[in-house]
């Protein structure tokens, strides 16, 4: 029962405590790639820990090895498992099914979310084929619309979309900076990071980790794309482009906050900040790699 | 959902540009100025567009005459609604350069930029 208690405690730390610290960590915005990695690690750790914790709570007297092999044999994956009876009893079946559900829930949502996103992208691509003008000069599709907007449609048939309004609002060099930002999203396959965070937050609604991971991932991938654009374009050019596009996008009626991230990004783009110390980076990587393994050590330890 | 074909888009573009109902033969004649294409291909695709609800058709004499059900602007509006609407598509569908913001937030953005510009000029 102590093992179960330790695992539950660890799940609470990973699911509630660490996320609120990480979302306020000063180094995260200075090393967004590292921070995204840390968020992914936290989500994996939480799934591992919650699975083992529930398993131990339900079947406190069985050691986890037998249980995991039992789980595999129940799925027909392992032969010669030590699970004695051909048909597991109800509590045994329950003890296997509940932890399995914790693993399968986010995976199921991942499948559902990617399927929905694919369909939505396809619908959007159809409309884009219909009304967009492919402009090879910019490697983008231009849409005849007055609202300035720039976005990318990720995936296999990826497109960078830019409205006529944005073309009018942006200077040539601002436009190239924005296009570099969007290209970075496509090349970095950032939509997959969005998808993972989204699936996780749907699987565990209400969990602080889920909320923070989704919000922070969205902001951090924008920062990663900003950084890529800044490799080739001056800081002020990208920042002014953000202002120009944002100014035209203001809805006539305020629809609640949502642009706070843009202000954080703008300040970050304009004021260069040093990357975190090497030791900090190594520490974060080490912690992210070790964190998912700890619950296994606790569960299988002596 | 099947991907909207290039030829489907080409037919729609022509009908919008002409702003009048036209037969598959009219469209074919125009396309044939650029490249050879069979009449049956254009006719089939026009019928597909009709079944999708994107074209209306009626008989004039012995030929079917086709006409777009919606204007190009209406499709553009639908596209922009998907891209900028307050109810965005599922995560990972579109990634926008800057999200929608309130007037206050946009002002804050501008003044932050002005402050930095002043500092760099000083």
UniProtKB/TrEMBL annotation, chain A:
What this protein needs as a cofactor is: Zn(2+)
Q: Which Pfam families match?
A: Peptidase_M48
Transmembrane helix found in the keyword field: yes
Extent of the signal sequence: none
GO MF terms, alphabetically ordered: metal ion binding; metalloendopeptidase activity
Q: Which GO terms describe its biological process?
A: proteolysis
Query: Where in the numbering of this chain does the Peptidase M48 domain appear?
Result: 116-197
Describe how the cofactor binds. Binds 1 zinc ion per subunit.
- Which InterPro entries does the record cross-reference, listed alphabetically? Beta-lactam_resp_regulator, Peptidase_M48
List the transmembrane segments.
38-59, 66-84, 96-115
Q: Which UniProt keywords apply?
A: Hydrolase, Membrane, Metal-binding, Metalloprotease, Protease, Transmembrane, Transmembrane helix, Zinc
Q: Which family does it belong to?
A: Belongs to the peptidase M48 family.
Task: Give the protein name, as stated in the record.
Answer: Peptidase M48 domain-containing protein
Give the species.
Answer: Streptomyces griseoruber
UniProtKB/TrEMBL annotation, chain B:
Q: Which InterPro entries match?
A: BlaI_family (IPR005650), WH-like_DNA-bd_sf (IPR036388), WH_DNA-bd_sf (IPR036390)
The Gene Ontology terms for molecular function here are:
DNA binding
List the SUPFAM superfamilies.
Winged helix' DNA-binding domain
User: Key word Zinc present in the record?
Assistant: no
Transcription regulation is among the record's keywords: yes
- Tell me where on the tree of life, at the top rank, the source sits: Bacteria
For biological process, the GO terms are: negative regulation of DNA-templated transcription
Q: Which Gene3D superfamilies match?
A: 6.10.140.850, Winged helix-like DNA-binding domain superfamily/Winged helix DNA-binding domain
Q: Which keywords describe this protein according to UniProt?
A: DNA-binding, Transcription, Transcription regulation
Q: Which family does it belong to?
A: Belongs to the BlaI transcriptional regulatory family.
Q: What is this protein called?
A: CopY family transcriptional regulator
Q: Which organism is it from?
A: Streptomyces griseoruber
């Amino acid at each position: 029962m102590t093992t179960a208690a330790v695992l539950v405690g660890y799940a609470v730390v990973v699911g509630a405590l660490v996320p609120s610290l990480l979302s306020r960590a000063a180094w995260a915005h200075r090393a967004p790639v590292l921070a995204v990695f840390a968020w992914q690690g936290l989500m994996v750790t939480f799934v591992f820990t919650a699975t083992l914790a529930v398993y131990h709570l339900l079947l406190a007297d069985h050691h986890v090895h037998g249980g995991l092999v039992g789980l595999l044999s129940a799925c027909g994956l392992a032969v010669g498992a030590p699970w004695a009876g051909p048909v597991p009893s109800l509590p045994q079946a329950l003890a296997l099914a509940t932890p399995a559900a914790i693993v399968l829930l986010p995976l199921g949502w991942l499948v559902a979310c990617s399927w929905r996103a694919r369909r939505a992208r396809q619908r959007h691509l159809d409309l884009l084929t219909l009304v967009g003008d492919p402009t090879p000069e910019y490697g983008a599709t231009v849409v005849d619309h007055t609202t300035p907007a720039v976005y990318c449609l990720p995936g296999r048939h990826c497109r960078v979309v830019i409205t006529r309004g944005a073309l009018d609002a942006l200077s040539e060099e601002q436009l190239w900076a924005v296009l570099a930002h969007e290209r970075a999203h496509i090349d970095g396959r950032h939509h997959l990071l969005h998808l993972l965070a989204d699936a996780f937050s749907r699987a565990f609604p209400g969990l602080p980790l889920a909320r923070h991971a989704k919000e922070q991932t969205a902001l951090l991938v924008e920062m990663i794309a900003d950084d890529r654009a800044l490799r080739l374009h001056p800081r002020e050019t990208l920042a002014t482009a953000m202002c120009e596009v944002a100014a035209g996008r203001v809805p006539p009626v305020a629809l609640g906050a949502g642009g706070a991230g843009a202000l954080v990004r703008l300040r970050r783009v304009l004021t260069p900040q040093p990357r975190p110390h090497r030791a900090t980076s190594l520490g974060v990587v080490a912690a992210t790699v070790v964190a998912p393994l700890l619950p296994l050590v606790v569960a299988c330890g002596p | 959902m099947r991907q909207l074909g290039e030829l489907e888009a080409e037919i729609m573009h022509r009908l919008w540009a002409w702003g009048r109902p036209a037969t598959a033969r009219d469209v074919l004649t125009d396309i044939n100025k650029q490249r050879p294409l069979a009449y049956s291909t254009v006719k089939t695709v026009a019928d597909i567009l009709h079944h999708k609800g994107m074209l209306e058709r009626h008989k004039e004499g012995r030929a079917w005459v086709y006409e777009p059900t919606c204007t190009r602007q209406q499709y553009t509006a639908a596209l922009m609604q998907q891209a900028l609407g307050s109810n965005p598509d599922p995560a990972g569908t579109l990634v926008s350069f800057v999200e929608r913001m309130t007037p206050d937030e946009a002002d804050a953005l501008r003044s932050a930029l002005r402050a930095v510009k002043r500092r760099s000029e000083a």
